[in-house]
Request: fold
Amino acid sequence: MSWHSWARWLGLALCRPHAFHEVYHQAGKVGLAWGTTTWMGRACAQTPLDLWVIGELIWKHQPRWVIETGTGEGGSALWYATILNLIGRGGQVITVDRVAPVRSSQFLFYLGSSLERIADIRECVKGDATMVILDSAHEADHVTAELNAYGPLVTVGQYLIIHDTHFNGHPIVTNNNPGPWEAVHDWLLSHPEFVIDRSQERHLLTFCPDGFLRRIN
Reply:
């Protein structure tokens, strides 16, 4: 997209409801906005607003383990590890993906599907205080399977965070099949031990609407 076309599209987009969210998301696809987010030289591919909130949650609740599905280049795993290192209590990040990033001593990486490696990860955390962040494939069936697999690892008082619940009109309009938002709401019907914490959406723009779940029992 040329800069002229981009500017015209931007002007039209800002006339619609949720315009800034749509513009911001689209901008990431052409190398702007969240598409430029990095930490320690590695791409995060997330909005800094969500990364900041997650960093605050890690600092406040001090999990022993932060589990991430969908490593990408490893920038977000390094961000979570940085917060844990600042806390200084030996917390660690576990991240899993089908494609290996450049390795780092700052996090534990498992190669393969998040669902294939769940047994290894479960054995690693062994019931210690655990936070989980889901950001791999975004089809509803896959997200539901991850919620079933990783939800039980989240300990009381910690968070289960699901990325990209903003697809399919929440508020990003796409032609996708049911995705993370639909999976979360269906799953919560049978999991009252988790509640949506909308106070974590306080920066007004989030890629995780209704995606910050706190375990209450």
Remarks:
- Residues 3-36 form one domain.
